[in-house]
Design brief:
The complex is a heterodimer of chains A (218) and B (180). Helices cover 36% and strands 15% of the residues of chain A. With 218 residues, chain A is an alpha+beta fold. In chain A, strand 5 and strand 6 form a beta hairpin. By secondary structure, chain B is α+β, with helices and mostly antiparallel strands. In chain B, strands 1, 2, 3, 5 and 7 form a 5-stranded antiparallel beta sheet that branches. In chain B, strands 6-4-8-9 form a 4-stranded antiparallel beta sheet. The chains are: A alpha+beta (218), B alpha+beta (180). Chain A binds chain B through residues 55-56, 60, 65, 68-69, 73-74, 78-81, 128-129, 133-134, 136-137, and chain B through 23, 26, 65-66, 68, 70-71, 103, 105-108, 111, 150-155.
Chain lengths: 218, 180
């Protein structure tokens, strides 16, 4: 029985000039088979889609400055520019309302309302310092159409499946997009030790060799 | 009717005051570059015609919230109108994160914690002079340390100045200042 193997794939720094499908194909050539799952870091997919903005390019509103104060200071929306970047894509009144609802929800023991009603980017935005240089000075949004991206990856590479994962060194592992037939929770669990590595390792692609058999074993 | 309006207004005002008190209690970040207690300049590198000097500055976050230094740079203020025998180029480097390039990676300063930044300047002799001769006529060199900070407040640039005196420089380079 083929053993499951986690293989990080080094790349150069990918930018908004790159096409993520082409790049993944190029860097995994000869390394990926029909039983494997390809996993790509969420922030890198977003960057190649041009989904990033510099704080200097935002018009920061008083509402964003006010609302950000209610997010714990370690959160990506805790800064005025982080909050403004969310408001720009999800709507400022929607975000303000969700924050207000979240605040009162907590009082009555109902957690997570802000993330539920504030829009999908609420949990996906990475503030400055959240991504490796040269994107450490940018706010990076979550990827657009992740399900479509993973579908294209699977088709192009002819592999068992594809995922886009949001993983960090603090043991957070979340699947943002996954192809049909792949158990996202299993993949998230396998990626918990962050095989994408730290910034200097530049391995935004990870191949889960023989994942098909691993999944079938239960 | 008037009573109802007054009560509503009172509730709104009380709510705003409570909100203000709550936010004041939470506080904001406060980045303080402690230039007065910086370490003395030291020689990092010396070649035939250049000298690299560095001083370590503490950046303390005395506030109640996390701060971010998004960028930092050192601008030597040596116009050739004042002295054209030396070319001065600055660089900021985070302590413990030596870089060969001139990039400053954005860094967090947690509340009530500090980071240290090395303000560096490379002095290169000009006009065919040897370094010692060029440094013997050097003037006091102000270095502006400019940093882009944010946290709970929108991003902005701040600036502090450290001065590398001609005397300190001469002493580090082992030259005697000329009496110009």
């Amino acid at each position: 029985m083929a053993e499951l193997e986690i293989v990080p794939v080094p790349t150069r720094i990918l930018t908004d000039k790159d096409n993520i499908i082409d790049c993944v194909e190029k860097y995994t050539k000869g390394k990926i088979g029909e039983n494997d799952v390809i996993s790509v870091a969420e922030s890198v997919v977003a960057i190649t889609q041009g989904r990033l903005v510099r704080p200097e390019d935002l018009q920061i509103s008083g509402l964003a400055q006010f609302c950000c104060r209610f997010i714990p200071d370690y959160g990506s929306l805790a800064s005025p520019h982080g909050m403004q970047s969310l408001m720009d894509v999800e709507g400022k009144w929607r975000v303000a309302f969700a924050l207000f609802a979240g605040f009162f929800g907590k009082i009555i023991g109902q957690n997570g309302l802000f993330y539920k009603w504030g829009g999908e980017q609420t949990a996906l935005i990475d503030d400055v310092t959240g991504t490796m240089p040269p994107f450490d000075k940018y706010i990076v949004y979550g990827p657009k159409n992740p399900e479509e991206v993973v579908k294209k990856l699977k088709e192009r590479l002819g592999c068992f499946g594809a995922v886009i994962a949001d993983v960090n060194d603090l043991k957070r592992s979340r699947i943002v997009g996954v192809t049909e037939g792949v158990d996202g929770e299993k993949v998230a669990h396998l990626l918990i030790d962050n095989p994408f590595g730290n910034a200097s390792q530049k391995t935004p692609i990870v191949i889960l060799k023989n994942f098909k058999q691993y999944q079938q074993q239960g | 009717m008037l009573d109802v309006i007054n009560i509503v207004l009172l509730v709104i005002v009380a709510g705003l005051i409570m909100m203000q008190l709550y936010l004041s209690k939470l506080g904001i970040e406060k980045v303080v570059p402690r230039v007065d207690s910086r370490e003395p300049f030291e020689v990092r590198e010396q070649t035939e015609n250049s000298l690299l000097l560095s001083t370590k500055i503490e950046f303390a976050n005395e506030g109640k919230q996390c701060a971010t230094i998004m960028d930092c740079m050192v601008r030597p203020q040596l116009p050739y109108e004042q002295y054209d025998g030396i070319e001065a180029r600055g660089k900021a480097e985070l302590d413990g994160a030596k870089r060969e390039d001139d990039y400053f990676e954005a860094v967090l300063i947690q509340k009530q914690e500090s980071i240290f930044i090395h303000a560096m300047v490379r002095l290169t002799a000009r006009k065919g002079q040897d370094l010692k001769t060029a440094l013997a006529h050097m003037v006091d060199l102000p270095l502006d340390v400019i940093y882009m900070e944010t946290g709970r407040t929108p991003w902005h640039y701040s600036k502090v100045r450290v001065v590398l005196t001609a005397q300190e420089l001469a002493s580090l380079a082992g030259v005697e200042l000329a009496d110009d």
